Amino acid sequence: MPRSALAAAALIALTSLAHAQTPAAPAAGASAPAAAAPRPPVDPTAPKPFADVIKGAKEQPGLFPIWRKDEKVWIEIPKEAFNKPFLFSVNVANSVGERGLYASQMLGDELAEWRRIGNQVQLIALNTKFRTSNPDSKLALDQAFSPSLIAGTPVASAEHPDRKSVLVDASGLLLGDIPGYSTRLEMAYRLPFAPDRANSFIEATRADPQISTLTSRIHFATARIPAPPLTPMPVPMPSPPQATPDPRSMFFSFVYSFRALPETPAAIRYADPRLGHFTESYSNLGDDLKANPRVHMVARWRLEKKDPSAALSEPVKPIVYWMDKNIPAKYREAVKAGILEWNKAFEKIGFKDAVQAKQQRDDADWDNMDATHASIRWFTGADVGFAIGPSNRDPRTGEILDADIGMSDVFGRGSRRLATDDVLGQSAHDHDHAAHAWMGERSQRLAQEQCSYMADQANELGFALDLLALRDGMDMNGPEAEALAQAVVKDVIMHEVGHTLGLKHNFRSSTTVTQAQLRDKAYTEAHGISNSVMDYNAYNLPLKGEPKASLTNTTLGAYDYWAIEYAYKQVPAEQETTELAKIAARSTEPLLAYGDDFDQGVGGPYDGFDPRSNQRDLGDDPLAYARKRLKLSQELWERVQARPANLGDDPLRNRRSVADAFRQLGMTANNVSKYVGGIYAERVVPGVTTGPAFKPVDNAQQRDALRFIASGLLSSDSFKFKPEFLATQTVDYNEWDRGLPLSIPDAVAALQGRVLDRLMSPNTARRLIEQASFLPEGQRKGAVSLNEVYGTLQGAIFSELKTGAEIDRMRRSLQREYLKRLQAQLNRSTNGATAYADAFSMARFHATQLANELRVASAKPGLSVETRAHLAESLDLLNSMLKATLTRS
């Protein structure tokens, strides 16, 4: 049949079908029904009805109700909750246990709110860095500074007709990389790990009127581990993950808390630079009369008396710390004692039982990682040895809302002399500052609150136990050693609780106790060994024959009472400014001396130039303590070399003892080097305090430090070990990375390198050049000069050139390390010396002198082949440096 005929037949058939389906016309006189209104077409993209989505699901009522059905989880957001701020925080409950990736850690918090754009719901982090006290400038501020998107997802339901709320799929919202862990993993392993949504899920939920908490179990993976290079790279690459069964795969549990802000904001207390409190800071751009727009609010808990008229009253709401059920039973009393010690400071300002400690039951089925339980959490890791005391705060006022102190289990091993080791044989990580640096201001705040006090205390504990056991016969498993371990746990808890109460480090407080007081047992038991538990206090170990007092801190110091008073003392609003000024004015009292992390040194231009602000020194004369620490280390080495081997001894026992002493000296080397070119810093407030803000360290002390460095730390005679001892120090043959023979020259070179790095740095050169400008004209004569320092250092390091003595391996290593740093000094294009022309010319002057001395020494007869080869190499290297083309700006 032709195509036209087919078309005609189809048309006839359709017409007939249409007539057959047309209903008959109604009979005459019958009323016709009204025509039905046409139904609107169904929108396939429209959200499903609320009831259909949660059919069969179970509700957890709360701030944002949570609905669960099998593996499905939804968050319900009431209409009135949109565009209303709350606190959003992230903690990591489970991790991989190495390289800064540990469990039981706070990760940060944000002032956040829900926003709805059409059918998309956004979780927005509000910008609190810039604020205004002038309503007229709010619009300009909002236009100038952007918020950030935390996560977004489509609405999962239509609005409930009665509840006026919508649902969002929790998986779509919270299974991404909200904490930015892919970057942290890349920093740790240099591998591109990414979240794997298909194998991630919501593993736990909890809700009440104040908070809604969801825990996401996130799988991170990388497709493959690259093959190692055929030849070693110039810059060593980190190994792939070592603590997971498969290095390509790992799980993290992130605890996300949505917490309601206090309906009534807490009263604000502004910080004073003479004391050390953590702050909530922002720029107030609403007042154009102030040159400095920065505002700093003290971070503190809301503490109010039940009876404001009483001299001593319980608080309306105490500060409660929950002790994690993972804390070993043997340490719980020490942890509790460390928490409750702070009540002494609060009682002094009128609060009874302001701080409380509660033990989580061993059979408890709730997790204190949410944002409403301040806690002391015990965690472990393969290479971990630190404690951290971070907190979550109300950004509007600085009020602390939650705090989770994380303590690694280093004491479980440390009290039995395994503290300096890790499980996998890798080096310990003290800080994770770099991992926080890219994450913004709030996460950098967490980095500041993390501290290595616990790891350092465990290392010091090992050093102390070893020395006391070898000197006095202390039983390492006996009651005296156990009591010391318990005291150290209490000391660390006092320190970390101090952080969560809002106190920063005070690295100057140890210098406010005299040497005589440190030897007085009655004094140290009553007052401790430092005037603050917020310092990194060294152990009060006596020299042989000296009286024995408290070894570690036992109680709060004068500074701690003062800092708590400023932050928490209840004062009528109209009297607050005057009363706080009176409290802060006590800063000139000797016992209240204060110096923070930057005063101690954090790197870069802030290398710490005040020798009174140190980690791990003790007493009012840090230089004297440095000499004492060297003597204690030498005593330990001597006793270890005489210690007989016993059946069942750990093969690495002596290595640890030797390493412990070198570790103590590493900090000492940095501290004593601060004297050279050092400057005393005082926190001067214009119009309030008098005296200089900066004053160069006394010339006699600078020269005394130089002599100790030259005759002590740079002398081979300070590091004597018997060949027969070194020959018997075995390795652990059960381990793959079993180590090499014990090398004392390598350990000494690392120690001496710290001294050279400090004394030959551009920062030290600048201070030596400029220190005279801080002195009156009549006091400048006889000041320590850059020429004197460089000359003394070079003369001590190359003393054999004048005496004609042989140069042993340890001294050759020191001289090579010196030449490396001298080469860097003479390279203007890389060392920044173009800013310090005098430093460059002085380094070149001494390099020329050294070349002449090397030339003369090389011609002397009777030297060994090793010494002659070393002199020739050194002279050739030095001549190359001096002949190199200079890069001039």
From TrEMBL:
GO terms for molecular function: metallopeptidase activity. The keyword Amino-acid biosynthesis does not apply. It comes from the Bacteria. Residues 1-20 form the signal peptide. Keywords: Signal. Residues 47-93 form the DUF5118 domain. Residues 105-306 form the DUF5117 domain. This is Metallopeptidase. It comes from Roseateles puraquae.
